[in-house]
Amino acid sequence: MQPNPGLPSVDVHEANRRRTAADVGTAADVGTKPLIVDVREPNEFAAVRLDDVVLVPMSSFAERMDTLPRDRPLLIMCAAGSRSAAVTAHLLRNGFTDVANVTGGITEWERAGLPVRRGPVAAGEGDL
Questions:
Q1: Looking at the annotation, which residues are catalytic?
Q2: What is d(CA 109, CA 102) in angstroms, rounded to the nearest whole number?
Q3: What predicted TM-score, i.e. pTM, was given to this entire model?
């Protein structure tokens, strides 16, 4: 998917850099570690996913978006970038300020050779 002009976006390499940079930083950096929010549906999440993400499916996003933290960066991801772009725009319209779409989504993440998980979803995996 092509980046959406004016929509804050990062590619998969930058998303991975941001999430791992806080892992090796100081305790003060932990508050700035981005939360990756996966907006795919549970069956998509079960097939392939990232560690340390929150699953908030697009089908229930409107009811659950207020559970997302407003005090840390959010990186929104889907399969290829279309749903996450829509969710990113929606969050920005609703007062979230530090939000970015992950262009290319999990498809591009996996294509880039970045780490993914497969197999049964563990209890609590994907929870906030």
A1: 78
A2: 9
A3: 0.90
